[in-house]
Design the sequence.
């Protein structure tokens, strides 16, 4: 009963206007347009920057499904080079303890802190200058099936963001 009461109080605090108002500020910021080179490009070369073939395959599939750009077989034929990299950043180990006041015992816990990331970088094919970069932090999942699903979702988000930003007036 006590846990239910605590949950209700925490829920009420999180849903109150003072706390929820912070999310409204993010919605007030307009989406910035992409550089004109990216918007006006016709042909792209998709490059696997390494880390996960599965993530690259999912990204390639979503870009092809979008159909905005013609995907070409070499950087020389392209207007843009779009590179997707998958990295898992190791941020160390978190250690904490908990005390059971009922039997006065203390347990020490530890967990490895990792951050799987998909990094999208768009280069100008002629100058090789970086034009745009975006990082998506994939959600953690314990089961392999869920990790695959989260990887596909993570590969979809940069494509969705590109779709939105390409349609923003210059």
Sequence:
């Amino acid at each position: 009963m006590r846990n239910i009461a605590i949950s209700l109080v925490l829920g009420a605090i999180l849903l109150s206007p003072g706390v929820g108002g912070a999310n409204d500020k993010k919605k007030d910021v307009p989406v910035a347009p992409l550089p004109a080179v990216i918007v006006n490009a016709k042909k792209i070369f998709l490059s696997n920057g390494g880390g996960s073939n599965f993530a690259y395959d999912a990204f390639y599939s979503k870009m092809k499904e979008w159909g905005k750009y013609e995907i070409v077989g070499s950087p020389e034929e392209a207007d843009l080079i779009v590179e997707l990299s998958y990295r898992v950043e190791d941020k160390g180990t978190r250690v904490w303890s908990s005390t059971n006041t009922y039997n006065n015992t203390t347990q020490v816990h530890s967990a490895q802190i990792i951050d799987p990331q998909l990094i999208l970088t768009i280069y100008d094919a002629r100058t090789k200058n970086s034009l745009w970069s975006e990082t998506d932090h994939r959600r953690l999942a314990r089961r392999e099936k869920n990790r695959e699903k989260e990887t596909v979702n993570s590969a979809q988000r940069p494509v969705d963001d590109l779709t939105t930003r390409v349609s923003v007036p210059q």
About this structure: The chain has one domain: 33-166. The first strand starts at residue 43 and ends at 48.
